[in-house]
Amino acid sequence: MHRAIKRTSKKAGQAPGTLIHIGERKAESVRITVIDYDEQNYQEKQVPSIEECVPYKTTPTTTWINIDGLHQVEVIEEAGKEFDLHPLILEDVLNTNQRPKMEDYESCIFAVMKMLRYDEEKGKIRSEQISLVLGSHYVITFQESIGDIFGPVRERIKNTKWRIRKLGADYLLYALIDCIVDHYFVVLEKMADKIETLQEQVTGDPSQDTLQQIHELKREMIFLRKSVWPVRELVNSLLRSESSLIDKTTEIYLRDVYDHAVQIIDAMETYREMISGMLDVYLSSISNKMNAVMKVLTIIATIFIPLTFVAGIYGMNFKYMPELEWRWAYPMVWVVMSAVFVGMIVYFKRKNWL
Questions:
Q1: What is the DSSP code (8-state) at residue 22?
Q2: What architecture does CATH give domain 2-284?
Q3: Taking residues 319-348, what's their average pLDDT?
Q4: C-alpha distances in angstroms, 168 versus 25, 36, 271?
Q5: Which long-range contacts link 8-11 to residues 24+ away (Cβ below 8 Å)?
Q6: Above 70 in pLDDT, residue 10?
Q7: β-pairing, 138-143 with 62-68?
Q8: At residue 216, does pLDDT exceed 70?
Q9: How far from the centroid of its chain's Cα atoms is residue 227's Cα?
């Protein structure tokens, strides 16, 4: 969070619409991919510049223009110029710390989301901002790096039997948003596995490392909440939008995405409560372990108090102590001390203190 605020502060005092890339450079070079299709035709190719994408702006076919890499501001600026994108859209595209949102600019619809993936090697959530622009016959997506989760969407576009080939750009926008939201379920499933493993540790033999894992998991859930919670509002805004770019037939699919977003948020809130409960269980477990140790030490100290008293009396160097002259005095002291020891052990057992 501190790094994000620090990066954003670079824009302090700049005019609205000033194009400055805020975020990490995640791609070596910018890659532009074009997928153009209708019910009968399909083509996919990489183009060297935005200029070659301009002809697709007015074609009746549906076009998906994907731009990987945001560090070259001039490429984003050229895309805005050729496709008549508002400067504030370009500013939001380059600021990778955006909160998920949707804005209607009449000539286009702009949406920002977080694309989440789970890194199996590091055991952490990887986040990437994706910006989507819906035009009359096209969708432009801006990604931070090469590689995404849209493989299933591309496969559906290639196959003529799927509905996506028959519908327009608004359905393509829905398909991309739906793919992002569905992948949140995958991330949540991984989080659920981590929570289950931690629960076993907490209820078994928790350690300092367990506490650290709980705090890390709590931070990840806070980040996940910030990334996912606004998606419900985003999809709801698309549903309430009166833009002519979104067909009425697409709304039913957007409502399905909305339902998925609500399910994810409900599950996420449940996991947050479970993590908070785990922290309480951890503190209780540590407290119980400490109490058990203190109980043992207290019992030992209690047993040795009378024994120390007897030993202290006969350790004094008084001359007139009649017991010192007795023949069986030493064995008798041991018998008394042993009897006291055994008697206290039996008493503690009966009281269930041991």
A1: B
A2: 2-Layer Sandwich (3.30)
A3: 84
A4: 33, 11, 38
A5: 8/95, 8/97, 11/95
A6: no
A7: parallel
A8: yes
A9: 8
